[in-house]
Amino acid sequence: MKSEDIHPKILEAFPDSDPKKKISEEKKGVIGSLDGPHLIIAGPGSGKTYTLVLRTLNILLKKLAEPSEIMLCTFTEKSAFELRDRLSNFAKKLGYDQNIQEVTTGTIHGLCHYFLSKYRHHTSLKSNFELLDDLTQELFIFDNFEDIISKKGDKHKPYLGKWNTEWSAVRGIIRFFDKITEELIDPKKLLRSDEEITKKLGRCYIHYEECLKKKNRVDMAHLQKYFYELLDKKKVGDKIISSLKYIMVDEYQDTNYIQEQIMIKLSSKSNNLCVVGDEDQSLYRFRGATVRNILEFKDLFKNCKEFVLETNYRSHREIIDFYNKFMDKPDWKSESNKRFRYPKKIKPDPTEKFPDYPAVFKINGDNEIVEAEKFADFVSFLKKDKIIQDYNQIALLLYSVRIEHSGPYIDALAKLGIPSFCPRKRAFFSNEEVQRMISCLSLILGYHGENRGNVNGRIMPEITAMIDQDIEKIKDESNDELLKELDKGIKEINFLKYKPTLDKRLVDYLYQLISVEPFKSWLEDENKARNISMLSYLLTVFQNYYHYTVITQKNLPGMRLKFFNSFLRLLFEKGKDEFEDPDMPFPKGYVQIMTIHQSKGLEFPVVVVGSLDRNPRAQKDVDRVLSDFYARPLFEPEDKVKIFDYLRLYYVAFSRAQKVLALTCSEDPSEYFEDSWNSLEEWPHKQKDLLKSQTFEFKERDKIKKGFSFTSDLNLYEDCPRQYKFFNELEFTPSRSAEVFFGSLVHQTIEEIHRYAIEDKLKELNEKVIRDIFEFNFRMLIESGMRPLAQKQKEIAFDQVICYYKQNKKEMQRIKEIEVDVSLEKEKYILNGKIDLVLGKDDKLEILDFKAQKKPKNDKVLIEKYRKQLCIYGHILEQRYKKKPQRLVIYWTGEKDKNKARMVFDYDHLIVDEAVKEFDTVVDKILKRDFEIKETPKPEYCRECDLKRYCVSKNTIKLK
Question: What is the pLDDT of residue 931?
Fold first, then answer.
């Protein structure tokens, strides 16, 4: 690659004369080659993120594109944030002064969601559509089981001839549903199949899609399908495609068919699609990913340029040599000489002088207890002899970390006083604070003894045993404070015999219980507080998906059974992970125990890999049933799929190690490890002393910059630091208030009116159409779990919408953008915001922020706060459009007189500077975790707050 292909600023910042900064020749090739399709095969530890960042900046510095015309796709949200921050840091280093935040970074799902939210009015999606995650998708299908997987005619048969219980049918059919969506299969074709199971799946899928549309829900697979279909729409599709000049996709080996098709469409005009990945690290076939996307990429694009990054800057040469030999052993070709792996050999860093010590060995024991004890001794040795500085420099990687697999290692470490961190061992319900809260709820709701009723064997013994044992503890502890609170809750529920409804939800009882011991003390322990917070989320999920807005006389029996016998049973059977702090994924002082899948993209000085006795397995049933309907035939030979995936999995595990790689097993390892295992020395071995002379340095990853906004951060913190701590920091899920419902209803309906204006369809609007939009939004907000408005309040909300529409039709011709996401990078954080409306088609930029209330009288502090918020948004837009905003407007929709509703401010840079300074001060307090209440919050903030009982118990406030 010629040096002139790379911008001089990059060459100056990374000169060849400095061995530590020098860019390798293989990286220069990628950075300097910009136009056309590119395939980058990047081996482990080859610095692909570093390369992608410099390639992006080379495009920008050479003015081949604006930041907003570049898209970077990554596999996880965490990777996207890391990429964003690294791009920003390098931009500063290279003196690039444009708004680098406008480079679109995210996961493919996240990017689909972004564009669908922006252009939703071009799809069949309605406002306020709800995205289903793994848990809520299962709940959705279970909740709509009769409509999707009808029991009719199957009373004495397994569901669809495959599953014996409802929950097993739900989990099993999701794999088929996702695959049908991701392979873009027309379900009507399934109905014409000769196979009965295929016909049934086709019918169920059609029913499933009908339910999704009716309930305004979208699962992750359909999120991609909606975006794919959006790109097919001529006008909006061309607009999106034309807006992107360069697209780069990381971890391309883990994409599926629909994701490949989306990327092909997005790059169809520019032809500048660069995919990066390593087929040897493809792990997600069980989620629909296919390694063929990267292996066949060159066949799809003419004149595709290929680069291979083979130099590993992470691992000791012995580790690299070990996993090279491991991957070279099998035959990666088919009988027709078709290849399933790119020919490559990972090389160690040529500039590194590797010390001589045993970098790869095995830990063996006669049984799992002895093996675990040897592992613990090894960990103790490393720390005691100061080879490592902290236990978090060690990672134990297993195929599964459920307690039955990770337990022996955790126990062996604990015997030596070594803490371990294994949040995904699915032991959420073993925590005392979780058990106690569930037991308290069972007492309040009356789910104990004979009240459990006859539910035909659906009671899970583990759940009832846990509850009964903890109820006995509650009685033995004689906690008068807790017993008094429980008695109060029980009486409230019992009083439903005499009145139809109780203005409470399940999560309200959680907030009452945390005001008494032992919960109040447990909240001082962050881990316990996080678990209670997670339970508040799960209670809210339950309420929302079973549509229990409040507890009533009518719904109580069904709620009780569904919560304990269905919802909790699902969570128990699946297992529930504990909290993981995304800002501190590897807490200091703990040995990390994680799955191999979880370790992907990570690195540790010392890696120990277990589960070597596990044999290859394959999930073939989905492909066997559906493959005839795929757009392309199956790629890898069926008899080799499970072997290929098995080798790739352990290749990922081995390549996480920087300084030491240890293999551990208590039985004979699988035949696929036999040669590798037998070639290794056993720990502790004669070369043990060579390790004593080593000191492994561990460079911690840079912390990801967090995003903060005026509405959800600054305002909340200034109103009440404790509310901020609970709802933003600890992520408790609040019990929704009517005030939130009112504002959301007004905002969403006005937003729909604006969408009509943007599409030049205002003529289609009238009061009846707006009423239909309003009523739909009302229903969807109730579906999402918000407490409904009283009829009088509902009509006031509609009057505000109609009044705004009638008085502002002319101004709507000037709408430039709606619901505009804006951001500004600061030294320690990202300042985020969302502007309701930008007017500017007459070349005058005007920013509007809607407040669903009357203009407050004599509240200068509040109004000044809103003004500062608008000034910051104006400053960000000034950078975006290179044009100074003319006016900043707060629109009070509660005012019937338009002139009174509009509050206009001048755009003032002095106010901007003042606002930024104030925001910096608040964020600094948040980052320092300063949540002490120094002044009693205003009574109106406390009146509707879920924490008011807790605050009374802490003597922060007094209730009248």
Answer: 93
Most confident of 180-189, 567-576, 676-685, 737-746: 180-189
Nearest Cα neighbor of 52 from 194, 198, 213, 248 is 248
Q: How confident is the model at residue 153 (pLDDT cuts 50, 70, 90)?
A: very low
Q: Do 596 and 399 contact (CB within 8 A), yes or no?
A: yes
pLDDT in tens, 94-129: 999 888 888 999 999 999 998 998 888 888 888 778
Domain end among 662, 692, 722:
692
User: CA–CA separation, 184 vs 99, rounded Å?
Assistant: 37
Q: Which of 653, 731, 704, 600 is nearest to 78 (CA)?
A: 704
Distance CA 913, CA 571 (A): 50
438 shares a domain with 564: yes
360-364 vs 311-312, strand pairing mode = unpaired
Residue type present at position 641: V
C-beta separation of 865 from 911 below 8 A: no
Q: Tell me what percent of the residues of the chain surpass a pLDDT of 70.
A: 94
Q: Are residues 54 and 92 in the same domain?
A: yes
With tokens 């970390």, the residue in question is 401
Sequence-distant (≥ 6) Cβ neighbours of residue 911 within 8 angstroms: 867, 868, 871
- Whether 486 and 548 map to the same domain: the answer is yes
Same domain, 448 and 564: yes
Last residue of a domain, one of 574, 605, 627: 574
**Distance (Å, rounded) from C-alpha 241 to C-alpha 591?**
46
Distance of CA 368 to the CA centre of its chain: 35
Long-range contacts of 878-887 (CB under 8 A, 24+ apart): 879/99, 879/824, 880/99, 880/102, 880/822, 881/840, 881/845, 883/845, 884/845, 885/845, 885/846, 885/847, 886/844, 886/845, 886/846, 887/844, 887/846, 887/847
Statement to judge: residues 68 and 139 lie in one domain: no
Q: Which of 491, 504, 486 is nearest to 552 (CA)?
A: 504
Query: Tens of pLDDT along 432-453?
Result: 999 999 999 999 999 887 767 6
What is the pTM for the complete model shown?
A: 0.85
Contacts of 929 (CB under 8 A, 6+ apart): 725, 729
Tell me whether residue 930 is in a domain: no
pLDDT digits over 323-346, tens only?
A: 999 999 888 887 666 788 988 899
Q: Starting at the edge strand that comes first in sequence, how are the strands of the sheet with 604-609 ordered? A: 360-364, 657-665, 604-609, 394-398, 591-595, 420-421
The distance of Cα 664 from the centroid of its chain, to the nearest Å, equals 32
Helix (H), strand (E), coil (C) string for 769-781: HHHHHHHHHHHHH
Residue 594 included in any domain: yes
Kindly state whether residue 94 falls inside one of the protein's structural domains. Answer: yes
Nearest-CA neighbor of 188 among 206, 170, 212? 206
State whether residue 626 is helix, strand or coil: helix
Residues 6+ apart with CB under 8 A from 479: 516, 517, 518
Per-chain mean pLDDT for the chain: 88
Cis, peptide link before residue 67, omega less than 30° from 0: no
Kindly state whether residues 375 and 466 are assigned to the same domain.
Answer: no
Q: Which residues of 270-306 are buried (b: 16+ CB within 10 A; e: fewer)?
A: bebbbbbbbbbbbbbbeebbbbbbbbebeeebeebbe
Is there a domain that residue 496 lies in?
A: yes
Give me the number of domains the chain comprises. Answer: 4
Domain, as residue range, for 402: 360-407+590-692
The C-alpha atoms of residue 524 and residue 529 are separated, in whole angstroms, by 7
Task: Give the C-alpha separation, 590 to 602, whole Å.
Answer: 16
Q: Which of 787, 728, 782 is nearest to 508 (CA)?
A: 787
Instruction: Tell whether 443 and 534 lie within a shared domain.
Output: yes
Same domain assignment for residues 682 and 605: yes
By mean pLDDT, which of 36-45, 250-259, 883-892 is the weakest? Answer: 883-892
Residue 617, C-beta contacts closer than 8 angstroms, at least 6 positions apart: 642
Most confident by average pLDDT, 531-540, 635-644, 776-785:
531-540
